[in-house]
Amino acid sequence: MATDVHGPVTTTGSSASAAVRVAGLSRTFDGRRVIDGLELTVRPGEFVALLGRSGCGKSTLLKILAGLDRDIDGTVFVPRRKATAFQAPRLMPWKKVWRNVLLGLPDKPERAVAERALEEVGLSHRADAWPKTLSGGEAQRASLARALVREPDLLLLDEPFGALDALTRIKAQRLVGELWQRRGCAVLLVTHDVEEAVLLADRVLVMDDGVIAHEAEIDLPRPRDIADPRFARIRAGLLDRLGVDATAEAA
Ligand SMILES: Nc1ncnc2c1ncn2[C@@H]1O[C@H](COP(=O)(O)OP(=O)(O)O)[C@@H](O)[C@H]1O
Ligand SMILES: [Mg+2]
Asked: Which domain holds residue 116?
């Protein structure tokens, strides 16, 4: 796996055993340390979910991993092949869906490349549509197709289902679970939904005070059943870590 290294601290040695390796990462905005000595390792093919209260720095971390923010201290190893999907699908309104999927790729790939990715997310029938005619769920699937054509070793998802209605959200979660199992790439999913995190992830992280403050391995078999008492126990533990009273939330 080719690796990108950024950050002023140069670390030698192989990171082949990890898809992501972050050491001593800090990011400061206007004198305020949003990320403060963060350590993180993600194994190749591992699905990691990242929880944390609003404003704790999740999107900041994801942007750094995506290479969109290099104003950092510390060291970041990520695969060269990585792709990102955000909450807002960010499609170019003047380009048809299939052209959006190929946007920014080198060597002008042919339409068939976009069609294969659209097929994978169940959207091939909308290849010639204009973005403004897509439903929220379709736009999010187009955004996923755009990530998939990059054949990422690391897929970075920032609350990708946050704007979807409940039913569409469940379908989109299932799709991401399937894509991950088929592709075998590492995934880092930022979400505010504890249930979504426990449904999908191998490991759930909680970010607080600029670091990964807590982590839980989710060793439940897949597909996961939210009615499983073990599921409820893990969920309650994470809600507790997030400072949410689980009994009050269920009421
Ligand atoms: N470009 C920026 N300039 C100044 N402050 C920022 C910038 N980006 C993020 N922040 C601040 O950093 C903190 C973390 O933001 P963010 O990573 O978006 O949080 P989260 O995604 O966890 O909700 C917030 O207080 C936010 O206002
Ligand atoms: Mg965010």
From this structure: 90-151
Query: How many domains is the chain built from?
Result: 1
Q: β-strand 186-190 against 203-208: which pairing, if any?
A: unpaired
Q: Which ligand is nearest to the CA of 31?
A: 1
Residues of the chain under the 70 pLDDT cut: 1-16, 246-251
Q: What three-state secondary structure class fits 153?
A: coil
User: Is the separation of the CB atoms in 203 and 48 below 8 Å?
Assistant: yes
**Ligand 1 neighbours (beta carbon < 6 A):** 29, 34, 52, 54-60
* Residue nearest atom 10 of ligand 1, based on CA coordinates: 29
Ligand that lies nearest to the alpha carbon of residue 207, given by its number in the listed order: 1
Distance of CA 110 from the midpoint of ligand 1 (Å): 38
Question: Residue 141 carries which side chain, given as an amino acid letter?
Answer: R
Answer whether residue 100 is part of any domain.
Answer: yes
Sheet holding 203-208, edge to edge: 82-86, 154-158, 186-190, 47-51, 203-208, 211-217
Distance CA(114)–CA(70), nearest Å, equals 30
